[in-house]
């Protein structure tokens, strides 16, 4: 799925990085807890969140994310947008709840970021 398709699916408004919306994305993560994102996301992905502070941008930087989607129509302050722009991120706001955004993206074919649980081995097998 391209970021442009995400914009259409979510009826979102691109705030920064519109020139990069032709990029392909393969998964998404949905969280307001950046510590969870750091712990479980291990691939380039899209992040859906309602958190609009600089922690989101720093998390995106550490994980080499491609796109930030702010749910519930939230718009970060200019310093956050400027920092995201410096990293080359596409930033958008969607006028829907995070739950609805996730459901619409899933229905359109975008899947969740792969993650392993504490007691799970690679491949989905559980340890004893």
The number of helical elements comes to 5
CATH hierarchy class name: Alpha Beta
The amount of helix comes to: 25-40%
Strand content: 15-25%
Q: Sketch the topology as an H/E string, one letter per element.
A: HEEHEHEHEHE
- In CATH terms, what is the architecture? 3-Layer(aba) Sandwich
Structural class: alpha/beta
Biggest sheet strand order reads 1-5-4-3-2-6
Low-confidence stretches: 123-128
- Arithmetic mean of pLDDT: 87
User: What number of structural domains do the residues give?
Assistant: 1
- Which descriptor suits the 3D outline? globular
Largest sheet: 6 strands, mixed
Keywords summarizing the entry:
single chain; alpha/beta; six-stranded mixed beta sheet; 5 helices; 6 strands; 17% strand; globular
């Amino acid at each position: 799925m391209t970021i442009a398709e995400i914009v259409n699916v979510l009826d979102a408004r691109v705030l920064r990085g519109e020139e990069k919306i032709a990029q392909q994305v393969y998964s998404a993560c949905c969280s307001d807890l950046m510590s969870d994102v750091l712990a479980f996301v291990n691939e380039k992905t899209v992040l859906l969140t309602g958190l609009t502070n600089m922690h989101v941008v720093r998390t995106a930087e550490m994980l080499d994310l491609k796109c930030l989607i702010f749910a519930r129509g939230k718009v970060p302050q200019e310093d956050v947008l400027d920092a995201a722009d410096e990293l080359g991120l596409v930033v958008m706001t969607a006028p829907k709840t995070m739950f609805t955004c996730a459901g619409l993206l899933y229905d359109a074919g975008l899947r969740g970021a792969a993650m392993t649980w504490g007691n799970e081995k690679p491949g989905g097998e559980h340890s004893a």
